[in-house]
Amino acid sequence: MIYSVFRLAVMLVVLVPFNSLFAQPGVRSGTNDQQHVNYFMQIDFNAAENKFNGYQKAIYTNNSSDTLQNIFYHLFYNAFQQGSAMEERAKHMKDQEGGIIQKFQTLKADQIGYHQIDSLKVSGKRQRFTTDGTIMKIILDNAITPKSETTIEIWFKSQVPKMIIRGGRDNSEQVAFTMTQWYPKIAAYDRAGWHTEEYIRREFFGPFSDFDVSIKLDKRYCLAATGVLQNGEEIGYGYAMKKPNKIRDNEKYLTWRFKAKDVHDFAWGADTGYTHTKREMKNGVQLNFFYKPSTATTEDWNDLPGQVEDIFKWMENKVGPYPYPQYSLVQGGSGGTEYPMLTMILGKRPESKGISKGYPIITLAIHEIMHNWFYAVVANDENRNAWLDEGFALFFQDEYTDAIAKDKGEPRAIQASYDYILPPARKGALEPMTTPADFFDANWGYSGVVYHKGAIFLNQLRYITGEASFWKGIKAYYSKWSFAHPDGDDFILCMEQASGMQLKWYLDLWTKSTRNIDYAVGTPEKRGQETMIPLLQNGLMPMPLDVLIELKDGTKLNYTVPQASMYGAKNEKDVKVAKPWSWTNPQYNLTIPVEYDRIKKIEIDPAKCLFDLVLSNNSITL
Ligand SMILES: [Zn+2]
Predict the structure, then answer these.
(1) CA 450/CA 432 separation, integer angstroms
(2) Number of domains composing the chain
């Protein structure tokens, strides 16, 4: 989500011509057993006072088989106040960020954020509700029965907070309004019940919805939003095919109406200085770019349309079609944050953060763009399974970075993830990947585990299943779980079906425990015409093992030793499949039909895919 937490060796990005061989398969349109919301919103925005009045009508469809006694809403803006859980947490994180604490401490009354609910009706009748921090609970007079529709109306007043993190007004690059997590939003309800996480720091989860949002705002502001503008001809600002009519000269305000279908959030940004450029892809998807022109931005933002189109084509080929009519990359926010059909990203090259300092905007944008596939379309619970979108986005960021790298001799981009978490893993300082997002002890631990260990999860999975099965499984997962909310089991089942292997052991041990991998080569023994090579499992995390044997005459022999729990093995060219190894036995003897004296070197995991804590025992030279 927030890119600034990354400490990645990002490569320079060069636009490479790309021939897409991709033919669009159909994308499944939602499952009918998950909740759905139709949001209709009218926003009367006072830009001078950073406030707005809102009316929201939500038609909520309870597709579950449960009877609901309450409805929960997120009121995210309430986090941006002194004494909020967000402020408390910032103070007590192990690696607290002084900047955030200081911003909270200096907030004045007209700089805090809030949602004030003036009135609330359900099915036309006023209802009781309680508000606790960022969570509102509606106590229903009449429970919502299974497979029924309920209309909720809310009249509210909100104040846009001065930017602390992610959303708000007047960000560090003087973008006026970053409108993210900005409206009363119905919480997710699924087979685990209501998801009512307080807004503390990170990650979101919501039901797929349709939005119809009208925003009345001072006409000097240009808007970028999730969805498609319905009245572009009236608005202008680069949306119109022809010049807008005279209305803009006579009126003080414009009302912008956006519609979006099958998205689980709606974000927008506004500034009086935005330049809006666009590019239409061959498949009809319109790419939009909104930025404030300056010597620090214009050059990069002129290059972005071609670069973003290249990423879209690459992802459509690798994963599946982008199903929405438009995508907007918008200068705003406090780093880089993904929203459906829209990314907020700082518009200038980073000046100080990490080793991405000074790199063009596209290096920061690649990660966020990958979230269109894993977050926007395939929408896992980002609180309980943050690795399913962040680990995936980072893995695809790395794969794309490698694909366009000029110098093919460079280390693979994902190597940075191994390097980042190897030292803390050796100290036993990592928490499990399935720790709920806000509960991580430290920010570095969150990024290390959710992003980096998450990306390594996929890299190792590819090593287990083999290349072809891996990509088949990724495509199947995307196709099956588009517009739905999968978890780790749903993903691994797709990979099991694609590979014909059993893989739940890998999911469970890698994501739910902190077990580590350490394999070693023992001392080989002469066995007549044969050689016995002992392989040792020193770590608690079992994995299949690739073994490379180099002979003195230069011949290379490749073996793979599958885990017995896989009930299968990868099928790769010139790789012999040895008999399976059960994790219950810490030693395995690989006997090969080669005389001892002919062997020069034995190496395990020669491709270095395993997150092996001790590399010094991975090879032996005879
Ligand atoms: Zn991300």
Answers:
(1) 9
(2) 3
